[in-house]
Amino acid sequence: MRILLVEDDPRAARALERGLREEGFAVEVAHDGEEGLGLAQTGHFEALVLDVMLPKLDGFTLLDEARAAGVIAPALFLTARDALPDRLRGLEAGGDYLVKPFAFSELVLRLHNLVQRGPAAGRTWAVGDLTVDPLRRRVQRGGERLDLSAQEYALLELLIRNAGHVVPRNRIAEELWEMAFDGDPNLVDAAVRRLRRKVDDPYPDKLIQTRRGVGYALEAPHG
Hints:
Elements: E1 2-6, H1 10-22, E2 26-30, H2 33-42, E3 47-51, H3 59-68, E4 75-79, H4 84-92, E5 95-99, H5 104-117, E6 125-127, E7 130-133, E8 138-141, E9 144-146, H6 150-161, E10 167-168, H7 169-177, H8 186-199, E11 208-211, E12 215-218
Parallel strand pairs: 1-2, 1-3, 3-4, 4-5
Antiparallel strand pairs: 6-7, 7-8, 8-9, 10-12, 11-12
Helix pairs in contact: 2-3, 6-8
């Protein structure tokens, strides 16, 4: 699942991003309301995690403007303000509400519940005979279930979310390891090789395509 996290506290943002990635989420982070709104409008996210007290644009206004722009992803507000009017404001804005400090396990559970109830519930991605169910993290090819590690699944989800388009190596490195790409392709290429052993090698049609010098694309073979 792809999550947009908007949090202006750098330490909290890093901790939440790291924890969510460890739970198998793909996470994009913004540090103020305007940046978050821009990402929400241009990205395809299963859920939004929004701090309420943000620079430039508060979380409530961010969600209002995102909804006006056609963004339908469910939202979870994070705030230290637990007074009833604040909680009602979050619910009226169309979001769930989690009061700081909170248990990280509760955040993960809330996100799963939001997405399961949200507009993307029941959606699967498919390329050829490969299907990915992002809610259940279930992968099948030719009707057979594939057993992927957390990293393999995260890489496959990144590729299938961008099916038919090249995903550059630097983006793969950033999303899988939270690191800048240093020009050495070995780390990314090794991860792709491991995924290919399960997704492609046992099957006649190869779906993971190499774009030399750029990155990888997931697409059904032509013809």
